[in-house]
Specification:
Layout: E1 2-9, H1 16-36, E2 39-44, E3 52-57, E4 60-65, E5 74-82, H2 86-93, E6 103-108, H3 121-124
Antiparallel strand pairs: 1-5, 1-6, 2-5, 3-4
Length: 130
């Protein structure tokens, strides 16, 4: 089963050096998870100040700057993994560096038939982002 591990934390909690160290540790974790057969995808997100939210109300598009909701912790990135069950997903989530100063939310992914085949980073000509 696939699980989305959503990483939440205070965007101001880390210095630039700490953030770079977190990216390096997350990259190493991604490689470990790939070797273990759990890795699907991962990426950090730019700060919420770069976010744009879109809503459709009464048939009209409303576009606003900023995240969907004002919260104490912001969505900072994600891991998409393959795990046998929730217990295994919890064990993997506990290895994510962001769990030490923020929260990792685990959500099972609904598998919809008929979706396009996923592209790998190599197929897209991009390097893995962490």
């Amino acid at each position: 089963m696939r699980y989305m591990l959503l990483i939440y934390g205070d965007e101001q909690a880390l210095s630039d050096d700490e953030r770079q160290a977190c990216y390096q540790e997350s990259t190493e974790l991604a490689h470990q998870l790939a070797r273990e057969g759990h890795f699907i995808a991962t990426a950090p997100l730019h700060p919420t100040s770069t976010a744009t939210s879109v809503r459709i109300r009464d048939g009209k598009r409303l576009v606003t700057d900023g995240p969907f909701a004002e919260t104490h912790e912001q969505l900072g990135g994600f891991f998409m993994i393959e795990a046998n069950d929730l217990d295994e997903a919890i064990a993997i989530a506990s290895r994510i560096p962001g769990a030490r100063w923020g929260t990792v939310e685990i959500r099972p992914v609904i598998e919809l038939p008929g979706l396009p085949e996923e592209k790998s980073s190599a197929d897209l000509g991009a390097r893995p982002a962490l």
